[in-house]
Design goal:
Number of strands: 8
Organism: Pseudolactococcus hodotermopsidis
Shape: extended
Pfam families: Phage_int_SAM_3, Phage_integrase
Protein name: Site-specific integrase
GO biological process, one term: DNA recombination
Family: Belongs to the 'phage' integrase family.
Radius of gyration: 29 Å
CATH class of the largest domain: Mainly Alpha
Strand content: 5-15%
Strand order of the largest sheet: 1-2-3
Number of helices: 14
Number of domains: 3
CATH superfamily of the largest domain: Intergrase catalytic core
Structural class: mainly alpha
């Protein structure tokens, strides 16, 4: 604590210090106060008293924190909580808040919300989630995450002195029925040949070459679409045939400084044919932007005005190309290239650890659970090895 000596106009000497109390649980802002006393010892005592009173008041300087409804409390918590979140996380959590929590609990007075009420609502969410068609209102398999959020909101209410008890703590979470493993779409050898043949028929236009380069890069590296669209030319090391993944693009085309997880930050190698395609694409891009006198801002897959593409816009182009190529499977997205990349590596004998690192998975278990069934050729090889071993025993 920095205590300063202050001389008043009448000549009296006093001591003053600026004291940090903490972060206001209601406003989310840092709180400081000035302490003045006739001695340094008195300043220290007053400072400690101010800090203690701040904490006893629920970490806020507001005397009367009052909310009419649970919606008011939820919005107050959210305004504070979202400050430290990434954009994509904010979008996901706002879906929970505005589509589930507020429509069901928002208009209740806080002191009227009971454990029984919350349990009834959560039970209905679980029943809807277990409904086979999932078309019922408020059907979501994430009801456990929503309940956890309700608990957190009530905990926030206790911290700021609005509620005395947390009725969500005693709610029992119903189990979600196990469903069949979701089929992962990928391009097998025959379909991949068909896909490449279709791309060769496309006209030699700049947007077409951009798409073809993007498709090739995704297939050769297994990158997520947001990671690929966020790449700049400075991320490419042509000498070592590697690229660095350090950013991603959200659904609105905004650059996010950090990708999906910490393990998503990685270096990924690519083959010579992809390298040559990138170099040709760069030459064509430089020519186009030099003619239009617009900067690409060093973005590899830049729009005509030098901005990032929205993943949704490119997704529409992909679906059109897939349909025209004769690939009509449902639920196909850019992840089809990621899944195909993993399948090729698995069936070429590459280990799960290496594939996990290459795909940027946070845990090797994710890779094994998601892609183990794609290694059909390796499974056949194991059977062949065992057959050869049997033969050696009988010879």
């Amino acid at each position: 604590m920095n205590i300063k000596t202050v001389t008043k106009k009448n000549g009296q000497i006093v001591y003053r210090a600026s004291v940090y109390l903490g972060v206001d649980a209601f406003t989310g802002k840092k709180v400081q106060t000035n302490i003045t006393a006739s001695t340094k010892k008195a300043v220290k005592m007053k400072a400690q008293q101010a800090i203690t009173e701040f904490h006893l008041n629920g970490n806020t300087r507001l005397d009367n924190v009052a909310f009419k409804t649970f919606q008011d409390l939820t919005i107050s918590w959210w305004d504070n909580h979202k400050l430290s979140l990434k954009h994509t996380t904010i979008v996901n959590k706002e879906n929970f808040i505005f589509n589930y929590i507020i429509p069901t609990l928002g208009y209740y007075k806080i002191n009227k919300i009971t454990t029984r009420l919350i349990q009834t609502i959560v039970n209905q969410w679980a029943a809807n989630a277990n409904n086979s068609d999932r078309n019922t209102m408020y059907a979501t398999k994430s009801y456990g995450a929503i309940l956890a959020m309700i608990k957190t909101i009530f905990r926030y209410g206790k911290n700021i002195g609005v509620v005395s008890e947390n009725p969500a703590l005693d709610v029992i979470l119903p189990k979600l029925k196990r469903r069949k493993t979701k089929t992962i779409n990928y391009l097998d050898t025959e379909t991949l040949i068909k896909w490449r043949a279709y791309l060769e028929t496309l006209p030699d236009k700049e947007i077409v070459f951009l798409k073809k380069t993007l498709y090739q890069l995704l297939l050769a590296t297994g990158l997520r679409i947001g990671e690929a669209l966020a790449l700049s030319w400075s991320d490419i090391d042509f000498d070592n045939n590697t690229l660095h993944v350090g950013h991603t693009v959200d659904n609105e085309g905004n650059l996010i400084e950090t990708p999906k997880t910490e393990s998503s930050i990685r270096d990924v190698s690519f083959d010579v044919s992809t390298k040559l395609m990138l170099k040709v694409y760069r030459q064509r891009q430089n020519l186009i932007f030099s003619q239009t006198k617009i900067s690409s801002n060093n973005i590899i897959f830049a729009t005509d005005i030098g901005t990032y593409y929205r993943p949704g816009n490119m997704r529409c182009k992909l679906r059109i190309d897939l349909q025209k190529s004769g690939i009509h499977e449902k639920g196909i997205s850019f992840h089809i290239f990621r899944h195909t990349h993993a399948s090729i590596l698995l069936n070429s004998g590459v280990g799960y650890k290496e594939i996990s690192q290459r795909l940027g998975h946070s845990d090797i278990g994710i890779t094994m659970n998601r892609y183990s069934h794609l290694s059909k050729e390796n499974a056949n090889k194991v059977a062949d090895v065992f057959a050869e071993y049997q033969k050696s025993l009988s010879s």
